[in-house]
């Protein structure tokens, strides 16, 4: 199944709201990792967003999956980009 690099972009003025929503967001992420649909995830260290490595049948399925993230449902992600990614070397290749 293909992999997708999903980038979230965050706005600084929503930091407090995202922090309050973080438990629900992380619970959802953990369930997706356990299910194998998200293979790895983490925030950018500058606070500008996050990267999710998603395994899905196609771009639309990857977008539909992340649309269920509590951060996305509550409008706390200002931009979502989804790009198919092909690992050549390493753990996911």
From TrEMBL:
Transmembrane segments: none annotated. It comes from the Bacteria. InterPro entries: Dimeric_a/b-barrel, YCII. Residues 4-86 form the YCII-related domain. Pfam families: YCII. PANTHER family: GSR2449 PROTEIN, YCII-RELATED DOMAIN-CONTAINING PROTEIN. Belongs to the YciI family. This is YCII-related domain-containing protein. It comes from Dietzia psychralcaliphila.
